[in-house]
Amino acid sequence: MPEIRVSDSLYRQLVSVSEAEGGDLDKTMWKMVARYGRGNHPGD
Question: Domain of life here (predicted)?
Fold first, then answer.
């Protein structure tokens, strides 16, 4: 699996969002990846 590096501030944001959404950091990160993909490749 590829390794993704993020800044400490972004990581803290991801943790905060994941805690607000039930505490699943992995699920939060996959949502972020999906949103990025839709925003950068609409219609694919």
Answer: Archaea
Whole-number pLDDT of residue 4? 79
d(CA 44, CA 29): 21
Query: Are the CB atoms for 28 and 35 separated by under 8 Å?
Result: no
**What's the CA gap between 37 and 23, in Å, rounded?**
23
Q: Provide the terminal-to-terminal Cα distance of the chain, rounded to the nearest Å.
A: 23
Q: Give the pTM.
A: 0.55
The reported pLDDT for the residue numbered 8 is 95
What's the rounded Cα separation, in Å, for the pair 4 and 34? 15
Question: What tokens were used for 29?
Answer: 């990160």
